[in-house]
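Thread: Modeling a multi-component assembly for a lab meeting

Hi all, long-time lurker, first post. My supervisor asked me to bring a structural picture of a complex we are working on to next week's group meeting, and I have zero experience with this. I have the sequence lines for every component (880 residues in total). Could someone generate the structure of the whole assembly? Inputs are pasted exactly as I received them:
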Amino acid sequence: MRIGLDVGGTHTDAVLMDGNAVVARTKTTTSEDVASGIETALSVVLEEQDPKAVSLLTIGTTQFTNAVIERKHLSRVAVVRACLPAGRGLKPRADWPADLASATDGGNYVIHGGHLYDGRTLADLDEREIEQVIEALRGSAPDSVVISTAFSPMQQDYEDALAARFSAALPQVHVCTSHYMGGLGLIERENAAILNASLLNFAQRVVTALVRSSQHFGLVCPVYVSQNDGTLIDLNKVSAFPALTFASGPTNSIRGAWALTGLSDAIVIDVGGTTSDIGVLKNGFPRQSNLVIDVGGVRTNFRMPDVLAMGLGGGSLIGGDGDQCGPQSVARELKNKAVCFGGDVLTLTDVAVSQGRMEIARATINDPAPQAVCDRVDALVVERLSAAVDLMKPGGATLPVILVGGGAPLIPGEKLAGCPVIRPINADVANAIGASIAQVSGEAEGLFVVGAQTRDEALKALTVEAERLAVVAGADPKSVVPINIEEVDIPYMATETTRIRVTVVGDLAQKEPPSR
Amino acid sequence: MKIFASDIDDLALGAVFLATGGGGDPYLPTLITRQTLAETGGVTLIDPSALKDDDFIVPVGGVGAPTVSLELLPSIDEASKVLDAYERLMGRSITAVASFEIGGGNSLIPLMAAAVRGIPVVDGDGMGRAFPEAQMMSYAIAGVRPTPALAMDYAGNTAIFETSDTSTYEYHIRAYAAAAGGMVTVAEHPMSGTQIRRSVIPNTVSFSLALGRLLREERGPIDDLLAPLKDLFADSVYGSVHKVFSGKVSGKRTRTVGGYDIGSLSLEDVNDPNRICSITIKNEYLVAMIDQQPLVMVPDLIVIVDSETSTPINAERLHYGQRVAVLAVGAPAFYQSEAAVIATEPRCFGIDLDYVPLEQLIPY
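Re: Modeling a multi-component assembly
Sure thing. I ran the full set together rather than chain by chain. Output:
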């Protein structure tokens, strides 16, 4: 049996799964300290279970995203960028919000080094410059050092060489190389690495607390955390790469929709209290966004699900006799303000109650909204969601629309944008179910120049590398399959150049049960 | 008129509009230009009419793959270093710099060069928009030779070009860019004050800034923004602006051929799904048609904006389902001349259509 846990901003959900069956489930409130909310949720799902029968605990958490957004628990990061003589005068963290730049500031250094797009050396590393930076860092003593070099996703040797030098010279400092944060785009990749490094101390405390909570309940199974692409990483990797969990919220609800329906290609709408998040399932995984991702006001290259957020949820305000719905919301005050709870604000929840789609145990008013208003709101909700579904569905295909999240019953009807609507049971704990899926992934990316090698050779080399990374992450080698090959042509070049990215996924290898 | 660091975001937004679908991501050029102007205290714009006959004006900009700059970062002093080398080559000092094209990141590079050197930037450019090839520049069309040209790579290595004609120059400079890390900074099309006055598309830098400011301050549905846009364009070198279609993106196909993004786009009328507007793309939007009937064609400008925010969207960012409006803007008078039409009409892009000016296609 497995436990899936999802720690969101408002709710902490947990499910106990036996294969695909939900054995126990709970939805509790996320506590200020996070840990006690997790323990409450675990105590509910483990009530009638022998904890030793649980073989895996998987957790999705928004703690690291929130730390960046709230500028809390961050530590000081020095940046060493090797790209000179290109990029003269351009400093790391150049356009960061001032509060985040100063909360993470451990110094910025730009030195010679790096590669070119065709694999040649941009500039050699300069021993004297490296010595000077090491000397400066001995004085300023940052918590960690990020190393970024030009084209490191294609050639890592300079980043690795610099990392070895800094680790040897500054043994008490975490040293992080940018190529671990993925793809091309030096500034975005470096920003991602800085955010990640600034969370390392906090990650250590979070991991320790998770281990303590699981031990408290007598769990002896391995603990994994879900990452942005919908697969799992172990606690060692969370300690080193906490930023890989930034998008686990939307990712887990999309993956949960897949687990609940078995549909590997679909539109997923996660309806919450204030927003509806619309994502796309492709081959059983969230479709990734190709745009630059903003985290806490910083441009990053994190691979995150392509999600469209609409201001439409249970707390959405109804105005103008039903010709307005959202984006304003009573949010967490639903139970004080909504008409069905005895308040005086008409919300989308009231409409759903009046229309008989939602039953609320503690509601005091059974028919809070007039029929004419309800009908207009329902039509408006269908129209707005249909437009959003239209925007998200790939190339005009007709795909099923899966409704998940606590607010799924708010949405009326059987079709959106001509696509059939599916309402699976346990949709309200889809995130926790998504977190409980035991798969791991590997990804490799490179530029392919026509003539230098054949496309098949390039693809094969990248696939081998991605498979290696998946097995390192814990995949059973026999189960690893490619799930995505992306090729993007690079315009303006005389020689035809394509960027190729290969993603593979496999089942988590079953380890021997721990002996006691 | 002076341009300051605080103007750069607006200027870049105006430049995306005028890029007519091309021009690449303006993020890095914006970042580095903003920083340069903050350090130097701004840059002076000079009206082409204020240049003296024997002034020496040099256009400067980047040639190559903008995507490569994501790793091979631009340098704050690279455009000014190109000017230093160019002055040594030519044996005379540069009075002012000018822009190749107002559309996209190349509108910002001359500002950086001029700010570092403390010389003015000509308020104008060589396209009034973005075009994919050098022989489509107004400088070339007016008979200005592209060479002697000097290209510099990230490390300060230079190459000097002296070619018989503009298309040979275009071919050679692209090969050099590919050999020199993928992106080079270039000084070319040297001109006297007399020459630039008859070959430049005037006042496009100040216009792009005003356009970007309008798009930011009045951000909202295109139907609300159309009237202020019409007023702004009425007072410019461009022809009038019209909304020629609104609908949603129903298909997009592009592929890279010979260093260009080539393909087509189809938009579906929201009220009548059978009414399809198709747009041909070669880096930029070239021709918009409904039922084989052209709505607007190059060299007139085709701009696609988000219907709700009126933010211009370039071709690489368009995707299925987006609600957009197609705007058509009459080309500047220069591009209505016979020589300019011959160099930029649909046939130059392999489209078998005679150029019909926008005002003859608009039914009012």
